[in-house]
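Technical note accompanying the year-one report. For the benefit of new consortium partners, we illustrate the data format agreed upon in the data management plan: each record pairs a sequence with a structure-token string. No post-processing was applied to the example shown here.
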Amino acid sequence: MKIGCYHLVSNIHDQDYINQSLKPFINSIEKYLGEPLISIVPGDIKKEPILPVIMIKSGGVEEKFKRIYQQFPPPYFLLAGCLHNALPAALEIKEYLKKREQQVEILHGSAEWIANRLKLIIKVIETKKALRRFRVGVLGKPSDWLIASGADYNAIRKKLGIRIYDIPMEEMVRHIDQVKNDEIPSNIAIMPVGFDQQLIQQSLRIYQGLKNLTQEYHFNAITVRCFELLDFYKNTGCLALSLLNQEGIIAGCEGDVPALISMIVTNQLTDQPVFMANPACIDQEKNEIIFAHCTIPINMCESVEWKSHFESGMGIAIRGKVKEGSVTLFKLDGNVERYFLEEGELIKNLELPSLCRSQLQITLRKPVTDFLKNSIANHHLICKGWHREKFEKLFSLIL
């Protein structure tokens, strides 16, 4: 997506002088962006993907802005430097738009800060567009214990553009059972070791069956009532979900739709693989939380071990070790009305015998009491890096 600038300057100013004086500022922004700011007129935004930015070059342009702003789609981004009373004019315009219940942001600061902010805005806009392409399959009903994790499919489609379809368990089982022996993959990057070969083959059969189903229904994300697999196959979907996530098919556990939607948003916004996990233990004195689950995307891990599923002792689960460092926690509720968001540091990978196999010990930047008060149900989503600004900007455009 290109960045287009519509320039506003007062008629009482010497426009050539103003353009010349602002040239170093604009050039510096372009250097940090790695691309030019193209000059546009309102009609240009209909011809190709362009982020329109209105550059306030001087004071005295408020009336000009009133005459032209409705030719541009909201939200409005006002670029203003420190020269020629541009910032006072931008502040006046911002208040004018807010009184008309329009979304507006002033881009003001160093050239590097403005360039980084523009990159973030573009990523958010591209994420909004990407979400509209998602078709989600819910394979079986949500697990019985998810009593606070319902989802309003219509609200999710209206606000995010994600379409959700319920698929009966019988259809999932049919796809798994129809996997032929020669379809079972033998060339995945990291093969399980230390398990009976028949068990490994069955885990990979579940993976291939789920993959075939996603291809048939054109799903790019699924959530699975996975505990039913224990009854059908004496096996779990832990390995299958990990492999699907690694391949870019976003896959969640237990039929938890809000968690899956949160995974999709997190992945698309951050370009990172996402760990769906239970908050298992909180230490308020140390400001730490232990998150654990039996599946994790392999491409999120530095190394993996193969274990049995924690609750059942069956199948193949994954103990993944993630590189220590910055992380973001996120969860969106099933009505797309509120979200939990926090940044922290992964300080240790644990191997406690009494928890699900992948275990991350995380210290938060804010008090963990906020998590106890404001978290949304059980499962929360974890990705590498700090991404608060991206989430906040995205949901300022949605909620």
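Partners are asked to follow this layout when depositing records. The chain is about 35% helix and 25% strand.
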